[in-house]
Write a structure and sequence with these properties.
Blueprint: E1 4-10, H1 25-32, E2 42-47, E3 52-56, H2 62-69, E4 81-85, H3 91-94, E5 110-114, H4 116-123, H5 126-133, E6 137-141, E7 148-149, E8 155-160, E9 171-176, E10 181-185, H6 198-204, E11 207-211, H7 233-239, H8 245-248, E12 251-254, H9 268-275, E13 279-280, E14 286-288
Parallel strand pairs: 3-4, 4-5, 5-6, 10-11, 11-12, 12-13
Antiparallel strand pairs: 1-2, 1-14, 2-3, 7-8, 8-9, 9-10
The structure holds zinc ion (ZN) (3 copies).
Length: about 290
């Protein structure tokens, strides 16, 4: 029986899948076949023995995501809700916080880990101010590359990544257990704009859950792609063409936009990703720590 693990609570981009307001075939078919539905990107670090958990990002789908977690967590008290790490101030990544307040869960003193600009964003926003005033949440400062100990076995470390930072910084997380490390980067503008070596990041870690918003930049027709930069999966695979298959198999793409054909496991794009040695992250996938 695995006691400590990471669970994927959702794998869709901020607008959800089906995407809010989309009347195209990509989303109409999901309305008809609800098992195709995906929740908005977020992961949980679960200690099923202590019966507590931490979230990385708290999405607008938190209600359904807690139902998924219910398999391992039998109560949603302030004791079981051990903390929340936020990546950035885009709606899919923090809006679920509102559910911690009096009208909904009414939790007490839940630690919410934030960088300085994200802190200012939350403190200066009256919806969240109320959560602070009512002591539903307590903001905790984090610094780049400084370990936060969750328990005896697990540490979390944050690092900055390039993204459209209008409202806050954007961070990725490294979760480290005694045996394994997992990297979580749901949103990034591009691998080239980041001053790290992507190959080395992959070699140095065991599991990498990475931004796979678009398969190809061509899939966006109604919006200006320059305003929503993400590394397309086909470009990421091109950059990583030379690495070993064993290294590729560590990568799981997430934060999938409704236009992304990898959402359909019968598509050519899905097949290309899988036969190239990579993975598409599924909701409810569990990674033993
Ligand atoms: Zn996002
Ligand atoms: Zn759609
Ligand atoms: Zn974003």
């Amino acid at each position: 029986m695995l006691n400590q693990f990471i669970m994927s609570l959702g794998t869709a981009q901020d607008g959800g899948y089906p995407h809010i307001g989309c009347l195209e075939s990509c989303c109409i078919k999901v309305r008809e076949r609800i098992n195709l539905k995906r929740l908005i990107a977020s992961i949980a670090i679960v200690d099923s023995k202590k019966k507590n958990f931490w979230l990385i990002d708290i999405s607008p789908n938190i209600n359904e995501q807690l139902i998924i977690l219910n398999k391992y967590i039998q109560d949603y008290s302030s004791q079981s809700f051990a903390g929340i790490f936020l990546t950035h101030a885009h709606i899919g990544h923090y809006a679920g916080l509102l559910n911690l307040g009096l009208e909904a869960l009414n939790l007490s003193k839940i630690p919410v880990y934030v960088f300085p600009r994200m802190k200012i964003f939350i403190e200066n926003n009256s919806m969240f101010q109320q959560l602070i005033d009512n002591r539903n949440i307590v903001l905790k400062d984090i610094e780049q590359f400084v370990d936060i100990k969750l328990n005896r076995d697990i540490k979390v470390q944050a690092f900055l990544v390039p993204h459209r930072n209008e409202l806050s910084e954007t961070v990725g997380y490294r979760i480290k257990s005694r045996n394994k490390t997992l990297i979580y980067i749901p949103d990034i503008d591009s691998w080239e704009d980041w001053d790290i070596e992507l190959d080395k990041l992959i070699i140095d870690n065991d599991i990498l859950i990475l931004d796979g918003t678009f398969y190809s930049k061509k899939e966006i027709k109604h919006r200006d792609i320059k305003k929503i930069p993400h590394p397309a999966i086909e470009d990421t695979m091109q950059i990583l063409k030379h690495i070993d298959r064993k290294e590729k198999s560590k990568i799981y793409f997430t934060h999938l936009n409704h236009t992304n054909r990898v959402l359909d496991d019968k598509s050519e794009e899905y097949n290309t990703v899988i036969t190239s040695g990579y993975n598409i992250l599924e909701d409810k996938k569990v990674f033993n720590l």
